[in-house]
């Protein structure tokens, strides 16, 4: 975005939500304090930390004073010398409660099956989930081209409840199309709008069918909110069907370098499959016609099926 100055010159406006110099200074200061506190808690002198990390005492002094813009590799060496996780040093905001730190480390050691069970128990006991209310809200997840809009509208008509598309709600909230939202606010700004619109929809509507954006599952807090408040169904499709349906919607960009596009799509599906699989149920829209998929989806939601 550009704006015109009184002199007639143009200046690029800063991206909304982007950090400025003062934010950078605060981050470096917090990072330095965290390194200094971690070193003190472990009874390490700066000389010992320099020896164990391979980073000079002078540089460590600058870092702890909030003046050192350390490289990722050097910070990794410092974290290893402190026997800490790198992400702990890079944490923004206040230190988490010690019980949360211990709980996180405990959960890290659990195998995948037990971790899933632990999550379900936590949600059941502390998530405030109302299962009856949850089944009155149906959320469809999956990549673009899976049939969320088409099947969502049919399901809502069958259940006689409102149908919403989250992307359209976001556009209404922002007053501009999605492309402009990303240009103005970036990915982070879009995700904030997405969460706000989802929360507002859940608070205002006890019953609905919702078609979500394909990338919502990549935002952990927002996806967790969706899973807790809505009965979620993953609409699956083969990469070929995804590609053909997107082009049928008028988006011909996948035709340019189709092999590369298909490979990228497969990578996205592979990366998101563990997230999509957290849904309560899955419907393979490649294996059924639209009418068959709509009927199966209605049976799933009307019957209250919760097992995959």
Which architecture of the largest domain would the CATH scheme give at its second level?
A: 3-Layer(aba) Sandwich
The gross shape turns out to be elongated
Q: What share of residues is helical?
A: 55-70%
Which structural class is indicated by helix and strand composition? alpha/beta
Can you give a write-up of this model?
The chain has 308 residues and is of the alpha/beta class. It folds into two domains: 21-102, lambda repressor-like DNA-binding domains (434 Repressor (Amino-terminal Domain), Orthogonal Bundle); 131-303, P-loop containing nucleotide triphosphate hydrolases (Rossmann fold), CATH 3.40.50. The chain is built from 15 helices and seven strands. The chain has helices at 21-41, 46-53, 57-64, 72-81, 86-89, 98-108, 112-126, 131-135, 148-159, 166-174, 178-204, 220-229, 239-248, 258-276, 290-303; strands at residues 2-4, 10-12, 137-141, 163-165, 208-211, 231-236, 281-284. It is elongated and about 70 Å long.
């Amino acid at each position: 975005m550009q704006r015109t100055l009184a002199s007639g010159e143009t200046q690029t406006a800063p991206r909304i939500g982007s950090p400025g110099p003062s934010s950078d200074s605060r981050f470096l200061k917090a990072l330095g304090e965290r390194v200094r506190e971690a070193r003190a808690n472990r009874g390490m002198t700066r000389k010992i930390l320099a020896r164990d990390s391979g980073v000079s005492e002078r540089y460590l002094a600058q870092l702890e004073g909030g003046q050192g813009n350390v490289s990722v590799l050097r910070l990794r060496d410092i974290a290893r010398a402190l026997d800490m996780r790198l992400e702990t040093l890079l944490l923004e905001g206040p230190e988490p409660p010690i019980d949360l730190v211990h709980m996180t480390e405990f959960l890290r050691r659990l195998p995948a099956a037990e971790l899933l069970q632990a999550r379900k128990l936590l949600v059941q006991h502390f998530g405030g989930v109302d299962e009856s209310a949850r089944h009155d809200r149906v959320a469809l997840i999956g990549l673009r081209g899976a049939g969320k809009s088409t099947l969502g509208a049919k399901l809502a008509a069958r259940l006689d409840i409102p149908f919403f598309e989250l992307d359209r709600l976001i556009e209404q909230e922002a007053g501009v199309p999605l492309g402009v939202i990303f240009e103005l606010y970036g990915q982070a700004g879009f995700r904030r709008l997405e969460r706000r619109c989802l929360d507002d929809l859940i608070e205002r509507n006890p019953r609905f069918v919702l078609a979500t954006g394909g990338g919502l599952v990549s935002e952990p807090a927002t996806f967790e909110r969706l899973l807790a408040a809505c009965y979620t169904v993953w609409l699956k499709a083969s990469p070929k069907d995804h590609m053909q349906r997107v082009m049928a919607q008028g988006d011909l960009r996948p035709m340019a370098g189709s092999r590369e596009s298909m490979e990228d799509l497969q990578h996205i599906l592979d990366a998101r499959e563990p997230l999509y699989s957290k849904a309560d149920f899955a419907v393979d829209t490649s294996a059924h016609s639209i009418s068959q998929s709509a009927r199966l989806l209605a049976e799933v939601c009307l019957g209250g099926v919760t097992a995959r």
